[in-house]
Amino acid sequence: MNKAFRKIWKKFWTPILHNPIIQWTLALILAGLLWLIFLTSKHKFTNTETLKNYRTKPVVFVFFHGRCAMLSPTIKRAKVKGCCVSSRHKDGRMMARLQRFFGLRAIYGSTSDGAVAVMREGVRVIRDKKLSMCVSVDGPSGPSLHLQDGALYFARMSGAPIVPCCFSCSRPIYLDRWDKFMIPKLFGTISVNIGDPIYIDSSLRGTAFETKRQEIEAIMIKQLRDMDSQFNLPEIPKGLNATDYKKQKRNKR
Predict the structure, then answer these.
(1) What pTM does this model have?
(2) Collapsing DSSP states into helix, strand and coil, what is residue 113?
(3) Tens-digit pLDDT profile for the chain (253 aa)?
(4) Tell me, which fold does domain 2-252 have in CATH?
(5) Which secondary-structure segment (H or E) carries 122?
(6) What residue spans define the domains of the chain?
(7) Strand 132-136 relative to strand 104-108: parallel, antiparallel, unpaired?
(8) Are strands 132-136 and 162-169 parallel, antiparallel or unpaired?
């Protein structure tokens, strides 16, 4: 009965939530909530000089999907101009509309859909328009804490450096998802860390490319683990993806 009810509920709500007008309205509400959380929290920023240095020159900002909520206000506050990579799925378009309220326009595509087109457009934006790219490296569906190749290709082909970004907080809410999406509660402490720039040599190929990918992935995971340890938070698991996580939830019911 619960399964039948969920199907009916999903069939009813999906067309409504995918309506552009509804999505813009929800995006505006979500943007307001993110600003409310950000502005009512105490802040601990690390290495924000990097943001200042790259206000007028492009960089590839990379972060894990579950840790993007407080990075959008941080980027907006730093007056960094850029684009974000969003899925072509309707849910991805919802997130793209949300990012527009933080000054980021969308480039649509993912590793599984439109990868070549998004790569070309991203490199063109970096080279010609001198805009930064913001990439959730394990999105849109995992595996969690895994650095996919796309960000490295952006950096290798454009010459712009990769900069790992992450946030953590003292009073988190974790959404029941594969990425353990973190949302801070009001009136807590938010910690934001901007990593050092990492350049990718244009000649990097094959094994050397994969070694560099693993190196940057390790840096990003350490960045996240170190930040969470400041607040004694539980360890976020690596390797979860959306499909397997949904199957696990169904099997537990």
Answers:
(1) 0.90
(2) coil
(3) 455 545 665 665 666 667 889 889 999 999 999 999 999 999 999 988 888 888 888 999 999 999 999 999 999 999 988 999 887 666 667 888 999 999 999 887 665 556 778 888 889 999 988 999 999 999 788 999 999 999 999 999 999 999 999 999 999 999 999 999 999 999 999 999 999 999 999 999 999 999 999 999 999 999 999 999 999 999 999 999 999 998 888 887 6
(4) Glycerol-3-phosphate (1)-acyltransferase (3.40.1130)
(5) helix 115-128
(6) 2-252
(7) unpaired
(8) unpaired
